[in-house]
Specification:
heterodimer; A: 356 residues; alpha+beta; Rossmann fold; OB fold (Dihydrolipoamide Acetyltransferase, E2P); 2 domains; six-stranded mixed β-sheet; five-stranded antiparallel β-sheet; 20 strands; B: 312 residues; mainly alpha; MetI-like fold; two-stranded antiparallel ribbon; 14 helices; globular
């Protein structure tokens, strides 16, 4: 297993800086996702690790070995491309054999390894098919197998599920994750799909404008985003502006807002009077049809403006006293009608302060 | 461009369906005429008058008896074909023609491939200019183009004068009035016909395939040999057919750059028709060239089809 270190990676294309002084360490056998909107530099970072992009500055190390100057063919990587990039003039077997031939693996071992990897990706029996004779999901698994059969130091996946239909995409997430764990290979996974990143990753690297904005596991990224754009990119959020009123205990603050006082948590050290942005996820809020008992952390009164039914949840837009609108989600079996007066209730631990 | 007097019907090579099936469909369409059918009528009439009819006329002519006082004498014979196919002189000229066509095609393919690859993959803003450069041989009339080469290649031309001055060869180099000069002229003008099909074939290859090959451990050269070239073979194939067919039927370039010292079928046929006035024999030679060219193309397609087996 290989440890990947990226140190101060910078890449400019003309006037735009695609990757800006990016540093991260990816542990042995770890699966790290690069997540961000298109143009955030995640693909450029991946292609730098692969060796297709020559960085302007910075270094890339595999287990301490500086590979920055190595061409792709000398880096021992397995790569899976968005459109699979299977060789159309070769059968499945020939596609898998390509990398082994380049490594001058003996014929006997070649066949053993191809057989083994085809078993892993559940494609045994399709060796003699051409890529065009396979379904999208099968092509995807051939691409994975082709990247794995060479037993690379690092597996690189560039939006590998983007071309599959929604249902298959969800299955393949679990498939790739369990495969990666089983093989135990250090993996970098590029995606713009937050759900995919959350399902599949040990750690998620959220990128904007060529920079790392936050690194963490799915819970950290979702519940405790460091900035408004991270919170916005991953899931829906309500943002309430205010000033810090007081610090109640370590990491807990009361924020004065136009909707009243809100108790919340923060990783930041804030002084009284400092401006703060409170983030509350729609599903963190519970709707109460009658005034809640005392002792609940946060209560905001409002009126149902819209209700929509999505099957697994019901969504609400609640008009509050100061004219702002809160988004709320709850289980779909609760009755609710436009015009109802409601109390929006949420715990202190579910309100999170982001620096403005 | 060369307008060869004896040419294979290029358009037939590109017909997507067998002619018989096409005719059947056409007949069906004519029974129930609609506007779309009417639209192709002018082209059909034109081709019928100026292509099919002359071909038929030539074919009939090639079976006529020769005559010294008229275009042909009464009665039919296969003697013209018999003579052409048994006389070593004519077979030699035929072999020379096919060989020169093959060599021209091979040189074109080797020269064209890197250019086509570069054009297909470059994102330079000079791309448009490169295109014009590729097409430039076709933008100049054949006679002017040949005189340009004569200035360069003649015994007292630019190259030979320089060679003599530098003392590299006291009598100069034989660059013209031989197969070399003819091949140079042919390669120059037919290069675009090789570059353009290869270019479009390479453009249809996903660049990610090259990345994939590199990631699997293939060097640039290996990637070319194992991925790019095999996948662009259909382009090489069609380019080769075009260049070969045009080369074996070229007339003006062999005349100007080879004089009559390079014996080739088209020049020979014209000699027989115009100078010797042997219309039936000339026609027979023309059809032998066309048939041989067709056979070579057929064998080439058969051979390359095996190479391209399994490709989309």
């Amino acid at each position: 297993m290989t440890k990947v270190t990226i140190n101060g990676l910078t890449k400019r294309f003309g006037a735009t800086t695609a990757v800006d002084d990016l540093s991260i360490e990816i542990g042995e056998g770890e699966l790290v996702s690069l997540l961000g909107p298109s143009g955030c530099g995640k693909t450029t970072t991946l292609r730098s690790i692969a060796g297709f992009v020559e960085p302007d500055s910075g270094r890339i190390l595999f287990d301490g070995l500086d590979v920055t100057a190595f061409p792709p063919e000398r880096r021992n990587i397995g790569m899976v491309f968005q459109n699979y990039a299977l060789f159309p003039h070769m059968t499945v077997r020939e596609n898998l054999r390509f990398g082994l031939e380049m490594r001058r693996v003996a014929r006997k071992e070649m066949n053993d390894r191809i057989g083994a990897v085809l078993d892993i990706v559940q494609l045994a029996g399709l060796e003699d098919r051409y890529p065009r004779e396979l379904s999208g999901g099968q092509q995807q698994r051939v691409a994975l197998a082709r990247g794995l059969v060479i037993e690379p130091a690092v597996l690189l996946l560039d939006e590998p599920l983007a071309n599959l239909d929604a249902k298959l995409r969800e299955d393949m997430r679990f498939f790739i994750r369990s495969l990666q764990k089983r093989v135990g290979i250090t993996t970098v996974y590029v995606t713009h799909d937050q759900a995919e990143a959350m399902v599949i990753s040990d750690r998620i690297v959220v990128m904007f404008d060529g920079r790392i904005r936050q690194v963490g596991n799915a819970t950290e990224i979702y519940a405790h985003p460091v900035s408004r754009d991270v919170a916005d990119f991953i899931g829906l959020s309500n943002f309430i502006e205010g000033q810090v009123n007081a610090r109640s205990e370590a990491g807990c603050y009361v924020v004065e807002t136009s909707l009243g006082k809100i108790s919340c948590r923060s990783a930041l050290t804030l002084g009284a009077g400092e401006s703060a942005l409170v983030m509350v996820r729609p599903e963190s809020i519970q709707l109460s049809r009658e005034a809640p008992a005392n002792g609940v952390a946060n209560v905001i009164t409002g009126q149902v403006r819209d209700r929509f039914y999505l099957g697994n949840i019901a969504g609400y837009r609640i008009a509050c006293g100061d004219g702002s609108v809160l988004q709320v989600q709850e289980e779909p079996w609760h009755a609710g009608a436009v015009g109802d007066a409601v109390w929006c209730v949420f715990e202190r631990d579910l309100a999170w302060i982001i620096r403005r | 461009m060369d307008h060869p007097p004896v040419a294979l019907d290029n358009s037939q090579l590109e017909l997507p369906e067998a002619p018989a099936a096409g005719l059947g469909r056409l007949a069906a369409a004519l029974r129930r005429p609609n506007r779309a059918t009417l639209l192709i009528l002018p082209t059909l009439l034109f081709l019928g008058c100026f292509l099919v009819a002359p071909y038929v006329n030539m074919l009939v002519m090639s079976f006529r008896n020769p005559s010294t006082t008229a275009v042909f004498a009464p009665g039919f014979t296969v003697a013209n074909y018999a003579k052409a196919l048994t006389d070593p002189y004519y077979l030699g000229v035929l072999a020379q023609t096919i060989l020169l066509g093959a060599v021209t095609t091979a040189i074109c393919a080797v020269v064209a491939y890197p250019v086509a690859y570069h054009l297909a993959r470059t994102r330079s803003r000079w791309r448009g200019l490169l295109y014009v450069g590729v097409l430039s041989p076709l933008l100049i009339g054949v006679v002017i183009r040949c005189y340009g080469w004569i200035i360069l290649l003649a015994n007292n031309g630019l190259i030979n004068n320089a060679v003599k001055k530098l003392g590299l060869a006291s009598h100069g180099l034989p660059l013209m009035y031989n197969s070399f000069g003819v091949a140079v002229g042919l390669v120059h003008v037919f290069l675009p016909f090789m570059i353009l099909p290869i270019l479009s074939a390479i453009q249809s290859i996903d660049p990610a395939l090259e990345d994939a090959a590199r990631s699997l451990g293939a060097s640039r050269a290996r990637t070319m040999l194992r991925v790019v070239i095999p996948l662009s073979l259909p382009g090489v194939q069609s380019g080769a057919i075009l260049v070969f067919v045009l080369s074996i039927s070229a007339y003006v370039i062999p005349i100007l750059l080879g004089a009559l010292k390079v014996k080739l079928m088209p020049t020979l046929v014209i000699q027989l028709l115009i100078d010797a006035f042997l219309w039936p024999f000339g026609a027979a030679l023309a059809f032998i060239l066309a048939a041989t060219g067709g056979l070579v193309v057929y064998l080439f397609i058969r051979a390359t089809a095996r190479l391209m087996h399994g490709m989309a």
